[in-house]
Specification:
Chain A: It comes from Nocardioides turkmenicus. The structure holds two protein chains of two kinds. Chain A is of the alpha/beta class. Helix content of chain A is 30%, strand content 24%. In chain A, the strands form three sheets. In chain A, strands 7-6-8-9-10 form a five-stranded parallel β-sheet, with helices on both faces. A three-stranded antiparallel β-sheet of chain A has the order 2-4-3, with helices on one face. In chain A, strands 1-5 form a two-stranded antiparallel ribbon. Helix content of chain B is 53%, strand content 7%. Chain B has a domain of 302 residues: D-Lysine 5,6-aminomutase alpha subunit (TIM Barrel), CATH 3.20.20. Chain B is of the alpha/beta class. The chains are: A alpha/beta, B alpha/beta.
């Protein structure tokens, strides 16, 4: 069966609940406005079961109603992540089992970029979005070089620490600095390592296009909102599978 | 509601914390940092930045350091050079930045004269701290204080100070007693304090002197409108701890987050840098009548809240020792803890009550800061709302001083207007329905709660004993990963290059004055 509707207490009843705020003083007009919004959202009939003033200028509503939409599960399209999402515990276990040593991750902000917010969100134990950073992972050895690291210094750190992966964060995008810096970085790694032996190169930042990996010469690009667990899972997936770095 | 704990056990725990803390204080008094020296210049009135945003205090400290090193402090060389530059600190800083000044360490009568002038200049800043404190006390007396405890603590964080202001005023009108302006992510790792009013930040707003001033002025207006003084909170943490403390004290902020070990553990800031910076920052907070908030809740976001409960108690005891040593009084100690036990653990609420009561029993006169669940807020907002209700109930029953309002949309979105309203309804319902429930109940002397509290206190005493037994005491314990699971050796971490061991000639008029209150506190 590919056609379904929301379920309240009877098959096919189509019942949903929503809550929202309108920037309007609490009044009969406000309730009517909420009802109108619910109708426009496809809820028909709808019931405003709760409305409450929040200050002089806002009203909060809870609305129940029947939606007239049908959902066809055959037409659902999802982009699947191409690696499994692991908990820190699972990631540690996989590294221990396959690498048999800690995974070494070197991170930095390169160029003149002093915004360590991205790299710190991923690496610092404090983490991001309720997830702990890579420092929290017992089997990951994190070397956070911080801000304004030159490309040669980054390469040198990667070589001496025998990095499995290099994480670079770029926040500043004036005159496409993030793209230029990333290309310079990947070129330097190509030069410094024999083919197929360089560490995984991962860049992240709010303005990158995640599909530009080939153009920039890196293995993976992570965009805004990426969490530490996603990065860790990707690194585990790539360093413990047979596939060599590109 | 109080626990029946043996006062001798509590006294033993305090004595151990003092023993663990003393060598750290001794180490702190033997070192200075670039941030300590910059804070001194800020108290002397040096403000502003060059067109690239580098503050003049950074320029001046760097210039002195390049000529004669940091170990003598900047006061003597700067005030010795000042006479030749029109007695104008800003001018001296500008000329020093341009490489037009050579600093040297004065001796004898020259040194005495420089010290006298430095003392006078820094005295103006310290007088401003005193004036802020008096102004706060006067405002509270005139317009009234928060109506009841716990004080309700709400956060604003838009990144833009001009957006923060109306949000903070709205939050105060909705019932907040305390407004905290969250800082931009990463500010803790900046080795300078940004300048001016700022409109862009990452998940928070930069802490600057001008942002402090603007927000305090706006809340003064709202305080008068509401007939109760609304307190303002920011962060004295990271690489600029004492500078931000000085700015906060001068601009009459009321509470500051200021943990003894947070920067070390969670931001990888060098331990020596942190302890040196922290001591002056706390001395300034003490002088300015600021309430500090410590960060023990953070340990429980990394370590298990049941297994690591004793690390919270241990850290509270250490934070108390360092705070009192710096001259802070009990009413200024917002020691932290949090409701972070996995709700799937059997008896989780009883365990939370035990931990919260333990803190209240050990620190009866401190306004404990009680932090809401974050770790087990999953996106199921309905369950989250219930969990926040239990958090509020535990806070009410155990008489917590500062209650950070939990949001059911924690880990989902930055709080919406309706989230904040629902959260405040939750708090009000629990306080009105059960705010004085503690009067009716006392934990059975040998019951689950009392036994659990004793167990945690016992583990804390064991841990303090182990810390003292390490060759380098607390520094080794921090290096070993005792707190929050993070290993932070004393010879590593950010900001280490900004630390220097004091020379015989070292002089700092700010610490000379503020050390007096530390001595009084110890007597």
């Amino acid at each position: 069966m590919s056609i379904i509707r929301p379920y309240g207490d009877t098959t096919g009843d189509g019942m949903v609940q929503v809550s929202f705020t309108l920037p309007i003083k609490h009044s009969k007009v406000a309730d009517g406005a909420a009802l109108q919004l619910a109708n426009k959202m496809g809820m028909e009939p709808a019931m405003v079961v709760h409305s409450k003033p929040m200050g002089d200028d806002f009203t909060f509503f809870v609305v129940y109603g029947q939606v007239n939409h049908l959902v066809d599960t055959d037409k659902v399209q999802v982009v699947e992540r191409d690696f499994p999402l692991l908990t820190p515990k699972e990631a540690n276990a996989v590294i221990k089992e396959t690498l048999r040593r800690p995974m070494v991750v070197v991170g930095a902000c390169i160029g003149t970029d002093a915004h360590t917010v991205g790299i710190d969100a991923i690496l610092n134990i404090k983490g991001f979005a309720g997830e702990k950073g890579l420092e929290y992972y017992k089997e990951i050895e994190v070397v956070n070089l911080g801000a304004q690291v030159s490309v040669p210094a980054l390469v040198e750190a990667a070589v001496t620490r025998r990095a499995d992966a290099v994480l670079v964060s770029q926040v500043v995008t004036q005159r496409d600095a993030h793209l230029l810096n990333t290309r310079e970085m990947s070129a330097a790694f190509r030069e410094a390592y024999p083919a197929g032996e360089r560490p995984l190169l991962v860049v992240g930042g709010p303005r990158f296009d995640e599909s530009m990996t080939a153009e920039l010469g890196v293995d993976r690009i992570f965009g805004r909102g990426t969490t530490p667990a996603e990065v860790a899972s990707y690194l585990v997936h790539r360093t413990t599978s047979k596939e060599p770095a590109a | 509601m109080r626990l029946d704990l043996d006062p001798r056990t509590i006294a033993q725990a305090r004595a151990l914390a003092a023993k663990a803390g003393e060598p750290i204080v001794e180490m702190a008094t033997k070192h200075t940092t670039v941030a300590v020296e910059r804070a001194t210049l800020r108290l002397a009135g040096l403000a502003g930045a060059d067109p690239d945003g580098t503050p003049w205090v950074n320029h001046l400290v760097d210039a002195v350091r390049a000529d004669i090193g940091l170990e003598h402090g900047i006061a003597l060389p700067v005030w010795h050079a000042l006479a030749a530059h029109g007695n104008d600190l800003s001018r001296l800083a500008e000329e020093a930045a341009a490489g037009q000044v050579t600093f040297r360490l004065p001796e004898g009568a020259e040194a005495e004269l420089a010290a006298k002038h430095a003392r006078e200049a820094v005295g103006v800043g310290i007088a401003r701290l005193d004036a802020s404190r008096v102004a706060r006390e006067r405002m509270i007396a005139e317009i009234g204080d928060a109506p009841r405890k716990p004080w309700i603590y709400l956060i604003v964080a838009t990144g833009d100070i001009y957006e923060d202001i109306p949000q903070a005023q709205a939050a105060a009108r909705e019932g907040a007693d305390i407004i905290a302006v969250i800082r931009s992510t990463g500010q803790s790792l900046l080795d300078y304090v940004p300048e001016g009013a700022t409109r862009e930040g990452f998940a928070g707003t930069y802490a600057t002197q001008e942002n402090f001033r603007l927000m305090r002025a706006a809340l003064d207006e709202t305080s008068r409108e509401l007939g109760r003084y609304v307190r303002l909170t920011n962060y004295a943490s990271g690489l600029c701890m004492p500078e931000i403390a000085a700015l906060a004290g001068m601009e009459r902020l009321d509470m500051m987050l200021n943990d003894s070990m947070y920067g070390i553990l969670f931001r990888d800031i060098n331990p020596v840098r942190t302890f040196v910076d922290q001591r002056l920052s706390r001395q300034i907070h003490a002088r300015a009548g600021i309430i500090i908030n410590t960060g023990e809740d953070n340990y429980l976001t990394t370590a298990d809240a049941v297994e690591a409960a004793h690390t919270v108690t241990t850290s509270q005891l250490l934070n108390e020792y360092f705070a009192k040593e710096a001259g802070l009084e009990d009413w200024q100690l917002g020691l932290g803890h949090a409701f972070e036990i996995n709700p799937d653990v059997p008896d989780s609420f009883r365990l939370e009550l035990a931990h919260a009561l333990l803190a209240k029993t050990i620190f009866p006169d401190a306004p404990l800061k009680w932090m809401p669940p974050t770790r087990h807020m999953t996106g199921d907002i309905f369950k989250g709302y219930l969990l926040d209700g239990f958090f509020n109930l535990a806070g009410a029953m155990t008489d917590q001083g500062i209650l950070l309002v939990g949001m059911m949309t924690e880990a989902v979105v930055t709080p919406w207007l309706s989230d904040r309203d629902l959260a405040l309804q939750n708090v009000r319902y629990v306080m009105d329905a059960a705010g004085r429930l503690g009067e009716d109940f006392h934990p059975a002397p040998d019951g689950f709660i009392a036994n659990r509290a004793r167990e945690v206190l016992g583990e804390s005493i064991d841990l303090l004993g182990k810390i003292i037994d390490e060759p380098n005491g607390l520094l080794d314990a921090i290096a070993d990963g005792t707190f929050g699971l993070m290993k932070r050796p004393a010879g590593a971490g950010k900001g280490l290059e900004g630390v220097a061991e004091k020379s015989e000639a070292y002089y700092n008029p700010a610490s000379a004055e503020l050390d007096k209150q530390s001595l009084e506190g110890n007597e």
